[in-house]
């Protein structure tokens, strides 16, 4: 998945706004005023933070140790950093984003 595809997917979800509260090098996607994804625009490979159920977060980190990490600069209990690469399919990445979106879109 490329950055433009990630952006397009996030913006395709209902009630999503794109903001840059941390400066021009990062984009935050929110729904109902709550952040569900943070991505660095200059990161290579692409890395982004998503919210995650705490039990699932641990399971995913164990299942994908190179691609799912504790949330960088976030509450590591509730956030994962996803590293886009060959270990994850596009469908898995989209599933992580949707899970985060649904956690905050209540």
Can you describe this structure?
- The protein has 106 residues and is an alpha+beta fold.
- 33% of the residues lie in helices and 28% in strands.
- The chain contains three helices and six strands; from the N terminus they run αββββαββα.
- The protein has helices spanning 3-12, 54-63, 90-104; strands at residues 16-19, 26-31, 34-40, 47-51, 68-70, 79-83.
- Strands 1-2-3-4-6-5 form a six-stranded antiparallel β-sheet, with helices on one face.
- The longest helix has 15 residues, at 90-104.
- It is globular.
- The model has no long low-confidence stretch (mean pLDDT 95).
- Indicate the mean pLDDT: 95
Strand order of the biggest β-sheet: 1-2-3-4-6-5
Structural class: alpha+beta
What fraction strand?
25-35%
Cα Rg: 12 Å
> How many individual helices?
3
């Amino acid at each position: 998945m490329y950055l433009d595809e990630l952006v397009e997917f996030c913006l395709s979800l209902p009630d999503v706004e794109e903001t840059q509260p941390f400066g021009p090098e990062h984009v935050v996607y929110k729904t109902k005023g709550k952040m569900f994804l943070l991505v660095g625009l200059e990161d290579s490979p692409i890395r982004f933070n998503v919210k995650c159920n705490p039990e699932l977060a641990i399971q995913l980190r164990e299942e994908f140790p190179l691609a799912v990490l504790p949330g960088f600069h976030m509450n590591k209990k509730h956030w994962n950093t996803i590293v886009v690469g060959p270990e994850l399919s596009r469908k898995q990445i989209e599933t992580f984003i949707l899970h985060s979106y649904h956690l905050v879109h209540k």
